[in-house]
Amino acid sequence: MDGVLRVLLDRSEGVVSRRAATRVVSESALWRACRAGALLRVLPGVYVDAGLLRLGAALEMAPSGGMVEACRPGSTGELVRRRSGAGWGGSASGGPALAFALLDGAMRKRAAVAYVDGRGALGGPTALDVWQLRRQPDTEPVHLDVPADSGLRGRPHLVVHHRQGFVVGPPQVVSRAGMPVVRLEQALVDAWPLLPAVDRPAPMIRAVNDRLTTPQRIAAALDRVPRLAGRAELRTLVDRLEAGCRSPLEIWGHDHVFTGPGMPGFQRQTRIVVGRRTMYLDVWAEGERVDFELDGAATHGDRRQREVDLRRDALLATAGILVVRFAHRRLVHETDAVRREVLAILASRRPSA
Predict the structure, then answer these.
(1) pLDDT at residue 233 above 50?
(2) Quick one: 131 and 94 in the same domain?
(3) Is a pLDDT exceeding 60 seen at residue 141?
(4) pTM above 0.85, yes or no
């Protein structure tokens, strides 16, 4: 490979656009690197260092051991080129798609950014990965948001969303990890119908818990997408977050235990200072001075966490606050019994007539 091209690839972490490459080397140098299998085209105008592809995945995709043996040892680029029947730059049908599929998640994102070349931003589930709220599996496609009139098309393993009124710049797009990415609230809303149902609440809850955004900002982003699939479920989650719920278990408790006849207007995640310590109460009945703590399944049997909880409960007792803890198992499987206990505890804390 041309030495200047090698330096350019190293500086760009193995991904380079045709436009950037031909600023420093000739078309023929680019052609020779592709013919040698050292460089592969993964998207229109985007090339990667073949040595950074996942060789194990390439071997799995090869149709026979004979083809693998025919390739130079360690030459992933040559293997992909032969596997796809591709010539210059992997230009045959299936060549770029196969090469793009062999990239790891980080390189796929960089290649996608090079493909849009300032005309789009990472969005949806891919944006959540960049925001470090959900790791996107390599089996999922990269998602890009572009203006409606951009003319950019999707490719295998690359989904392009054409957005009316989308502007590739602040405030709709920010830079994170050196890549353009849509604002967090928009990414959360857009990703909702694209994620497996079991994965949907966690990024939303974590984003609010980590104070990266607020339920109000998410609600505003949701209002801008009136026809979103699964909108009702997302609206319910946002409402629970606005009510102060901060975990799936607290949401369950809100919906099944701490609402209904006889229940007071509880406060959630209430900040309180006792002595020099600041604490947050899961479900706080201020009038009765009772704090109901919902212990998740992960804390069950953790002796160190139990000791921390006991010290915390004793400190709250000095302020006249009764702490009642309900384990995950009881909340979920003995819901009616827990409701009765809550009502009885609250009644016992109220002054007699």
Answers:
(1) yes
(2) no
(3) yes
(4) no
Residues 152-173 have a mean pLDDT of 95
Quick one: 196 and 221 in the same domain? yes
Residues 277 and 223 in one domain: no
Domain total for the chain? 3
Question: Whole-angstrom Cα distance, residue 49 to residue 33?
Answer: 10
| Residue finishing a domain among 198, 221, 242 | 242
Dump pLDDT digits (tens) for 255-306. 999 998 889 899 999 999 998 899 999 999 999 999 999 987 655 557 888 8
Q: Is the residue at 165 inside a domain?
A: yes
Phi and psi at 202, nearest 5°, equal: -55, -50
Domain containing 24 equals: 3-103
Nearest CA to 258 out of 352, 329, 326, 314 is that of 326
Token digits of residue 74: 């360690």
332: domain CATH number?
Answer: 3.40.960.10
Does any domain span residue 110?
no
| 234 belongs to a structural domain | yes
Q: What's the rounded Cα separation, in Å, for the pair 306 and 108?
A: 44
Distance (Å) of CA 323 to CA 317, 328, 351: 8, 16, 18
| Strand residue runs (E) in the chain | 15-17, 39-43, 46-49, 121-122, 142-147, 158-163, 173-176, 179-182, 267-274, 277-285, 290-295, 322-327
Are 209 and 235 contained in the same domain?
Answer: yes
Is residue 93 scored above 50 in pLDDT? no
> CA end-to-end span of the chain, whole Å?
90
Looking at every residue in the chain, the average pLDDT score rounds to 87
Share of the chain above pLDDT 70, in %: 86
CA distance 207 to 215: 9
